[in-house]
Amino acid sequence: MVSLQDEKVMANEGVYAPRSVIITKGKQGFGFNVRGQVDEGGQLKSINGKLYPPLQHISNVVEGGPADDAGVLIGDRILEVNGHSVEGESHSRVIELIKQNPEKLRMILMSVPMKENDRLDGEAVSYCSEEDFDIKKVDITVPSVSHKEENGSKFVVYNVYLNGQFQCSHRYNAFHALQSDLKTKFYQFEFPRFPGKWPFQLSNSQLEKRHKELEQWLIQVCSVTQIFDHFYMQDFLGLTKVKKEKSTDCDSALIPLL
User: Fold this and answer.
1) In angstroms, rounded to a whole number, what is the distance separating the alpha carbons of residues 5 and 258?
2) Distance of CA 33 to the CA centre of its chain
3) Is 181 left (phi over 0), alpha (psi -120 to 50) or beta?
4) Lowest mean pLDDT among 14-28, 116-130, 178-192
5) Rounded-to-integer distance, Cα 198 and Cα 211, Å
6) Would you say residue 10 has pLDDT above 70?
7) Distance CA 219, CA 221 (A)
8) Is the dihedral of CA 117, 98, 193, 173 positive or negative?
9) What is the pLDDT confidence band of residue 198, given thresholds at 50, 70 and 90?
10) How far is it, in rounded angstroms, from Cα 12 to Cα 124?
11) In 3-state terms, the chain is what percent helix, strand and coil (to 5)?
12) Nearest residue to 122 via CA among 32, 45, 209, 218
């Protein structure tokens, strides 16, 4: 039985033959991630009946993004970037070539059967890693929890402080929704571990564990300037209302005299 992924691959000319793709950068980048070995060189491996040195490969494609529109598939091996052969090249070199043209990217790719991906994968390093983000410590903490009751339902909220001042309180589900939204928007970023859901009522020790894990997650995520400044995070922290009020004050002061 042919998988959906392999059906898409076989739809390309020559089934698994090398093909050229051109990707025009969108608002959030080219829309894919690259993984592969850190260093250059390495042992030759048989790929689609031919020997190749280790190849970087596509590890993720954002649905509906520029790479997806160009026909890039998860598992594609990268043979050439912007006219330069990258067979056996280091991960950093491939990233350098990908970034060479900030608006348009041309690559020669080769698809492989899904079952071959695990065999061919080298040491994993993500393209668009932390070097592409600005890191700055933010004084944000979750020092306490509060027990609430609403319409006969009891629940816990986590109290968030910014610069030593109370900022907002949210239930676990709100943190979880924020995590999902941010991962969709910042697909390049390798997010820290997020505490998983638990189907039963948490014990005191489990609640404390989740409390500490949520705090660490929030501290690490907010240390990335692009994420902290994004609307999703600003809205979660209740800062969008403050900015709107300040903006309204400024607008009234800028009314011209006639």
Assistant:
1) 66
2) 9
3) alpha
4) 116-130
5) 13
6) no
7) 6
8) negative
9) confident
10) 27
11) 35, 25, 40
12) 45
The pLDDT assigned to 35 comes to 81
Place of tokens 């793709």: 21
Which helix H or strand E contains 159, and what residues bound it? strand 153-162
Contact 91, 38 (CB under 8 A): yes
How far does CA 253 lie from the centroid of its chain?
41
* Residue where the block lists tokens 């009234």: 252
Residues 191-196 have a mean pLDDT of: 88
Both tokens assigned to 219 = 């501290």
Q: What's at 25, amino acid-wise?
A: K
pTM over 0.70: no
How close are the terminal C-alpha atoms of the chain, in Å?
Answer: 76
What torsion, rounded to 10 degrees, do the Cα atoms 92, 97, 102, 103 define? -130
**Separation between Cα atoms, residue 169 and residue 173, nearest integer Å:** 12
| Amino acid making up residue 198 | W
Structure tokens at 214: 């949520």
36 near 64, Cβ under 8 Å?
no
Yes or no: say if 154 and 148 are a contact pair by the CB < 8 Å rule. Answer: yes
